[in-house]
Design a protein that fits this description.
Layout: H1 7-15, H2 31-63
Amino acid sequence: MYPPKTVTALVQMRGRARKKDSKFIVLCTSSAEEGKLTDIMEREKYMIEATARLVQLQKNEECNM
C-alpha cells in the first residue's frame, strides 16, 4: 500500500481497517515519505479539532436562543 497523498486518502485508507481491534499500518520507503505522512496526519488532527470547535459553537448558539 502506498502512503496517502491527502487527508481524504488517509481517511479512506483507514476506513478499510474497520474490524474491531484492526490495525492500520503505512510503510514508508524514505524519510521524505514519512515526513509527508506526518504532515497529513497533523492536518487531519487540525481538521478534527476545528470541527469539534464548530460543533461546540453551534451548540452554544442553540442554547442562547
